Amino acid sequence: MNEAQTRFNKIDPKLRDAGWGIVPGSNILVEQSAYIAPGRLTTTGNKNPKKADYILEYKGQKLAVIEAKSDEKDVSEGVAQAKLYADALKIRYTYSTNGDEIWFIDMGVKSGNGDYIIPSKERDIDNFPSPQDLWQMTFPDENPWRDKFNLCALNRSGGREPRYYQEIAIKNVLEAVAKQHNRILLTMATGTGKTYTAFQICWKLTQTKWNIKGVERAPRILFIADRNILANQAINDFDQFPEDAMCRITPKELKKNNYKVPTARNLYFTIFQTMMTSPNAQKAEEQGITLPEGADDQPYYMQYERDFFDFIIIDECHRGGTVPISWV
Question: How is 138-164 classified by DSSP, letter by letter?
Answer without folding.
Answer: H--S--HHHHHHHHSPP--GGG----H
